[in-house]
């Protein structure tokens, strides 16, 4: 397991810190609800950078809330309110605590990332056979459910087969999660397409209420959990331009940064110009998708 350089989460009065991931901090509120806070942290290649991207946490929080609304008739979600302590206003939501299913529910309409690696090795993704001749960025014959198991902090998620999910949570739950995941993808893909954006893939997390109802949790359809590509620039056979941290990744890998990925050291601080362009990319994605001004 890799060492992760996650900074200490700030104390929030009246809330108990539970967990910090690379980007978000989770707290418990009196009464048992959760406070999910999105920081301005950014990670590339599993390193949390020393430099933050101003407004990123708020942009992603607002985007996720907007999507929860778009999906509300398909699946209930965990959001209770956005009435949060002043220190985290705009970047946090109060949500109900769910018993999370131990499955990362991924839907893919296009082939890239770990899906592409699996396909190149076996012609399959998560046990689903795909046609020959697909390239990086190819559109799949139809969207597929490609579950993964959540890794320990710092490890990569591992793709698993649908049969593995059945073994873990039972056939009925597995079928429900697959159907919900593909339903959410279909809705979101069509909304994004109308706005000139391809939703290549997305990762969802579901959990159960005490009464057994399945509820959509975590964050949804943000650039941290999904791949959004400008439709006009889509061209299979190469890495697609995308609305996320690509600017940061490209800079880190360029000679300009002086960083050696193989060194095992964290990348150096980002130049202000890279920070500004990255922030602009998140704002652009927010505005295009939601139709709202930032
Ligand atoms: P990273 O995303 O950095 O790889 P991570 O997933 O551990 O690491 P976060 O995404 O910041 O870090 O953590 C959010 C945690 O909260 C996840 O474990 C997620 O499954 C969990 N979670 C999300 N929504 C709920 C909920 N409603 N109830 C309980 N747990 C939730
Ligand atoms: Mg996470």
From TrEMBL:
Asked whether the UniProt record includes RNA-binding among its keywords, one would answer no
Instruction: Name the top EC class.
Output: ligase
Q: Per its UniProt record, what Pfam families does this chain match?
A: SAICAR_synt
Location of the SAICAR synthetase/ADE2 N-terminal domain = 18-263
List the SUPFAM superfamilies hit by this protein, alphabetically.
Answer: SAICAR synthase-like (SSF56104)
What is the primary gene name for this protein? purC
Enzyme Commission designation = 6.3.2.6
Its GO biological process terms?
'de novo' IMP biosynthetic process
Which family is this protein grouped under?
Belongs to the SAICAR synthetase family.
> What's this protein's name?
Phosphoribosylaminoimidazole-succinocarboxamide synthase
Q: What is the lineage of its organism?
A: Bacteria, Bacillati, Actinomycetota, Actinomycetes, Propionibacteriales
Q: Does the keyword Nucleotide-binding apply?
A: yes
List the InterPro entries: SAICAR_synt/ADE2_N, SAICAR_synth, SAICAR_synthetase_CS
Catalysed reaction(s) here are:
5-amino-1-(5-phospho-D-ribosyl)imidazole-4-carboxylate + L-aspartate + ATP = (2S)-2-[5-amino-1-(5-phospho-beta-D-ribosyl)imidazole-4-carboxamido]succinate + ADP + phosphate + 2 H(+)
Q: Which pathway is recorded for this entry? A: Purine metabolism; IMP biosynthesis via de novo pathway; 5-amino-1-(5-phospho-D-ribosyl)imidazole-4-carboxamide from 5-amino-1-(5-phospho-D-ribosyl)imidazole-4-carboxylate: step 1/2
Keyword annotations of the record? ATP-binding, Ligase, Nucleotide-binding, Purine biosynthesis
Report one GO cellular component: cytoplasm
Entry GO MF terms = ATP binding; phosphoribosylaminoimidazolesuccinocarboxamide synthase activity
């Amino acid at each position: 397991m890799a060492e992760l350089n996650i900074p200490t989460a700030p104390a929030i009065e009246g809330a108990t810190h539970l967990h910090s991931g690379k980007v978000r901090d989770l707290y418990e509120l009196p009464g048992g609800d959760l406070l999910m806070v999105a920081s301005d942290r950014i990670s590339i290649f599993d390193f949390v950078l020393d430099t933050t991207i101003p407004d990123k946490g708020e942009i992603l929080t607002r985007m996720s809330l907007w999507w929860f609304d778009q999906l509300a008739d398909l699946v209930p979600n965990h959001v209770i309110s956005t009435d949060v302590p002043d220190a985290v206003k705009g970047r946090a939501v109060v949500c109900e605590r769910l018993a999370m299913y131990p499955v990362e529910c991924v839907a893919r309409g296009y082939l890239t990332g770990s899906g592409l690696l699996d396909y190149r090795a076996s012609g399959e993704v998560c046990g689903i056979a795909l046609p020959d001749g697909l390239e990086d960025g190819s559109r799949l014959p139809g969207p597929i459910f490609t579950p993964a198991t959540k890794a320990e902090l710092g490890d990569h998620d591992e793709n698993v087969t649908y049969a593995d999910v059945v073994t873990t949570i039972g056939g009925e739950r597995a079928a429900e999660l697959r159907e919900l995941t593909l339903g959410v993808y279909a809705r979101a893909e069509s909304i994004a397409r109308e706005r000139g954006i391809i939703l290549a893939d997305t990762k969802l997390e579901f959990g159960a209420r005490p009464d057994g109802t399945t509820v959509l949790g975590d964050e949804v359809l943000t650039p941290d959990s999904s791949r959004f590509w400008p439709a006009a620039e889509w061209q299979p056979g190469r890495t697609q331009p995308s609305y996320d941290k690509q600017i940061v990744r490209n800079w880190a890998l360029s000679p300009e940064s002086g960083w050696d990925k193989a060194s095992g050291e964290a990348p150096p601080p980002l130049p202000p110009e890279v920070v500004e362009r990255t922030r602009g990319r998140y704002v652009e994605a927010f505005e295009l998708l939601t139709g709202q001004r930032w």
